[in-house]
Automatic annotation (TrEMBL):
EC top class named in words: hydrolase
Record flagged with keyword Nucleotide-binding: no
InterPro entries from the UniProt entry: GDPD, GP_PDE_dom
Residues annotated as domain GP-PDE: 34-323
A Gene Ontology molecular function term of the record: glycerophosphodiester phosphodiesterase activity
Designated name of the protein: glycerophosphodiester phosphodiesterase
Family designation: Belongs to the glycerophosphoryl diester phosphodiesterase family.
One GO biological process term: glycerol metabolic process
Catalytic activity: a sn-glycero-3-phosphodiester + H2O = an alcohol + sn-glycerol 3-phosphate + H(+)
Top-level division of the source organism's lineage: Eukaryota
Stored PROSITE patterns: GP_PDE
Record keywords, A-Z: Glycerol metabolism, Hydrolase
EC numbers on record: 3.1.4.46
Length: 359
């Protein structure tokens, strides 16, 4: 993958790029499988959840990535931002929270330099003590970020160097703040350091880029053509000022106009609008989903029936095992495993699901 530092107005037209087949479609055909992706590695952290699985391992860490790699995952997903001094780091939240002498303070990830970013939480140098790492809950509470097995914050380069399984794919989410406006030049400055790391040390590892930010997804597609780019969407479950984010139909339109290869939707968005699945397939786009329902084996099974190509999950061990059982060949056709639902039963379920999801 070749890169150069350019003004965004100099980015070449998509007309100059060859069409690439859908990575997931090719992957599924080659491996005859349903794709499972580990969310932030072995699963996200939820500070107030009674489910201890959400506090087992520090999310978005080398420890979490390598723990996830022990299972039959195809990819791990993680969030990448760029520090003030141009280093791509792996962190989900827009802000880091800490405290000093009892006073809580926040620092925007993109406003700190690499050395400060790495100074929060546990340190690789056992002789050092990191600054306290806190987290803001959805309810606005600032809480101690407690996990059973902690690990230092890390960079994108470290992920490539320290994830032990060389064929484990990376789904790199380009993380941007929903509350900020990004000019094209600003986006270019944020994306190029990420692409440079991937270009330098990505080697043969399978890679997918994804983003909730429409212009970031479009720009990363223009800046490189080696790796597929997916558009992340809530699928209409939440509304935004940018209408391109507000439905699966808008997501399809964005992908087709911008040459993106696929969509990653909140699973509820797909269940509420199952007719969109065929539209996406007819558009020759890949479709994956994310969301809490993907930690329920029955919901994952239903998506397999619908023709969805893969799921991003937190409960890595349980869902990889469920998918393994799901994909076992049936007695009817050992070469092509298929669930035992008739077309009539599947049609009924697809009509019923949107009603169930509304309640």
């Amino acid at each position: 993958m070749s890169l150069k530092a350019i003004h965004v107005s100099e980015v070449p037209s998509l007309d100059h790029f060859p069409e690439n087949p859908s990575l997931l479609c090719s992957y599924r055909k080659a491996n005859n499988k349903f794709v499972v992706v580990g969310h932030r590695g072995h699963g996200m952290n939820m500070t107030q959840s009674p489910d201890l699985r959400f506090s087992a391992l520090k999310e978005n860490s080398i420890l979490s990535f390598n723990a996830a790699s022990k299972f039959s995952l195809d990819f791990i997903e993680f969030d990448v931002q760029v520090t003030r001094d141009g280093c791509p780091v792996i962190f989900h939240d827009d802000f880091i929270y800490s405290e000093e002498q009892g006073v809580v303070y926040e620092r925007r990830v993109t406003d700190v330099c690499l050395s400060e970013f790495l100074s929060y939480g546990p340190q690789r140098d056992t002789g050092k003590t990191g600054k306290p790492l806190l987290r803001k809950s959805k309810e606005g509470k600032i809480l101690k970020w407690s996990v059973e097995s902690d690990d230092p914050l890390c960079t994108l380069q470290e992920a490539f160097e320290k994830v032990e399984k060389p064929n484990l794919g990376f789904n790199i989410e380009l993380k941007l703040d929903d509350n900020l406006f990004y000019s094209s030049d600003h986006l270019s400055r944020l994306l190029l350091p990420i692409l440079q790391v991937v270009s330098d040390i990505g080697k043969d590892r399978p890679i997918i880029f994804s983003s909730f930010h429409p212009d970031a997804a479009l720009l990363v597609r223009k800046l490189q053509t080696t790796y597929p780019v997916f558009f992340l969407t809530n699928g209409g479950t939440e509304m935004y000022y940018d209408t391109r984010r507000n439905s699966l139909e808008e997501a399809i339109k964005l992908c087709l106009e911008g040459g993106l290869q696929g969509i990653v939707s909140e699973v509820k968005g797909v269940f509420r609008n199952p007719a969109a699945v065929n539209k996406i397939k007819e558009s020759k786009l890949s479709l994956m989903t994310y969301g809490k329902l993907n930690n329920v084996a029955e919901a994952v099974y239903m998506q397999h029936l619908m023709g969805i190509e893969g799921v991003i999950v937190d409960h890595v061990e349980e869902i990889t095992e469920a998918v393994r059982e799901m994909m076992k060949p049936s007695n009817r056709d050992a070469d092509e495993p298929k669930p035992n639902f008739s077309e009539r039963e599947l049609s009924f379920l697809l009509k019923l699901i949107p009603e169930l999801i509304q309640h």
